[in-house]
Amino acid sequence: MSTVTTTYKVSGMSCGHCEGAVSGEISGIEGVTSVKAVASAGEVTVTSTTEPDYEAVRAAVDEAGFELTGRA
User: Are the C-beta atoms of residues 18 and 66 closer than 8 Å to each other?
Assistant: First the structure.
């Protein structure tokens, strides 16, 4: 099975707790197989079975208390 890896820019993350909150929310999106958030880079890399819906990713990041600012 092929996978799609997409990296997004997220503003406001500053620590491991922030990374966990963002990763946890994005992990709930259908098709997502792994999430790696890096606060120091302000990036989240999402691996999924298909291209994730941008609005679903934005909503998940918002729910975690941060702002999705685009793709990296």
Answer: yes
SS3 43: strand
What pTM did the predictor assign? 0.94
pLDDT tens, N- to C-terminus, the chain (72 residues): 689 999 999 999 999 999 999 999 999 999 999 999 999 999 999 999 999 999 999 999 999 999 999 999
20, β-bridge pairs? none
3-state secondary structure of 35: strand
66: nearest Cα among 31, 29, 14: 14
